[in-house]
Amino acid sequence: MNRGRTKGILAAGLIATLTAAGAMVTAQVPTDKPLSTAKTVLPADSAKSTAPAANAAGGRELNATDVDAWLDGYMPFALRSNDIAGAVVTVVKDGQVIAARGYGYADIAHRKPVDPATTLFRPGSVSKLVTWTAVMQQVEAGKIDLDADINTYLDFKIPPRNGKPVTMRQIMTHTAGFEEAMKDLITDKQDGLIPLGTYLKRWTPTRIFDAGTTPAYSNWATSLAGYVVERTSGMGFDDYVEAHVFRPLDMKTASFRQPLPGNLKPLVATGYPRASKDAEPFEVVIPAPAGSLSASGLDMAKFMIAHLQNGKGLLKPETATTMHNSPLDKVNPVSLVPPLNRMELGFFETNINGREVIGHLGDTNNFHTSLHLFMNEGVGFYVSFNSAGKEGGAHTVRLQLFQDFADRYFPSTVKDGRIDGRTAAEHAKLMTGLWESSRRGSSNFVDVLNLFGQTEVTVDKDGGLLVPSLTSPGGGVQKWDEIAPFVWRDHNGHDRLAAQVVGGKVVRWSFDLVAPFTVFDRVSAWRSSAWLKPAIYASLAILLLTFLSWPVAAFTRWRFAAPLKVEGKARMAYRATRLGALLTLAAAGGWTAFIISAFSNLSVLSAASDGILWFLKGASALAFFGMVAAAAWNAVLTWRDGRRWPAKTWSVLVVLAALVPLYVALVFHLLVPSVMY
Fold first, then answer.
1. What is the sign of the dihedral through the CA atoms of 137, 373, 107 and 278?
2. Rounded to an integer, what distance in angstroms lies between the CA atom of residue 19 and that of residue 478?
């Protein structure tokens, strides 16, 4: 559900070549559709199109003929080359659907094509836009005050942080300060849904930032907003959005219900990790208001039209304006990194080519979606895929498709400046170091991801800014040109990166794609992977050698009939140290295996894993504390007994090696006595 940190993953440059050549797919599968623009395109079909006219701004004229031809040349190749099963694309303009295209398959095994009118996709966090619309309806009705303490509307309490409560405005702009909540996010168990109130009341994520100061994306907080809608409206969330959002817009295929109603179940697209992999079950999103929507492409087109027309059918124009362009005087400037994109009320900016664009991204395990509204042009663009694809290719395709759409129809007229080379090198140097994302778990074992996921910023051979983890669609590291003081543009793309500078020091930065809901702050020295990762690797090596020396030494003594030279307590300490090393290595291996498994399949992060977590925590506490005690005891006896310097030196190294896993476990909350996260 928009897990954030989306980087370039796969090459997409050849798509533009095919598009320029005018390749097009036109054969359609007949369906019962309400609009003549709804068409399904299968991989084997192809034809040619004529070149369209340019518009006054220098781009192509956006009309049904041109956009259909362009998409039909673009999408089949994108799906095939990225091993994606199917996709739906809808484009609206001036209140009309001008393109509704289905590509590939909703169900590969049954060769069921994607139908934009009837095939339901799972748009993940794009669902939040429905939730935020419901919230604004309640604001409009006078039942919710955006700036009131959220506890006003709850039957449980959200604790204040530094005396400051959470407000609905902060929840809608992801600045309430909550840490990431990962447990029970998605499951493939069809009866695995937890009632919304139960889900929220069992645990409140720690607020790790003061309210209003730091964007940190939160599915949990969005679900809290959905719960507030339930309480202020007196209706269940599913019932409310059906009555007040879907029914007014005639969105007959849209539903937040899980499992789906009987009449919609046969219509939902099957999800696949890759088109070449086995199908996976319907994903149940447990924090439902944050991402459980199922809807056809044409129903999402209706939703886009409503918002492009000042909330027509849903909100009063003035309410829609507040939602789409929230007043800056209500925003703490500390939470922004100008001139990057920012949060509106629920929507976030995806500005491109100097155009005002708002939208949202969405992800489940298998479905990947984006929605963008060009507000001044009256144009909406929606795409959803039912596969992650090869190396997560759907992420790259959806971003590149949006950017290529904007370049084709709304090309840039923005002229970037340029900072001189010497100053640019000085600014880049100020950016160097290790940084951590504001969107993170903090009070539980998930915190350990922040050790191995720190973002490095460095400089290239010419002194230019370099962020190795930010890559282009082709996989190469992005090159950044400084276009204004502490503002950079991707040399070959649209992305901007910018920094906050306080007292001549860079304290925070982000980049356009994630800036509305994630920023990067410097890592504290005591949590820095610059020294901790080498320390961990050295520690594990020393502990491994310490354990292996036990059977090797025993074999050697047996082979040459030599006695063990330590007796009594020294022998006990010697053996306890070797056993402790084994248990520490086993505990580290257990955590590694669990984390890899859990974050490869989010359904593992559920109550079903509580037993494993309790065992890991208990065993790790025993192993880590026990190893430190044994190593210290062994070192004291080794030095007291007057053994040789190699033995003394090694005993000290073993103590230091034993301290490292314990330090990591305590600092990164592996041993916290809780299975909530």
1. negative
2. 24
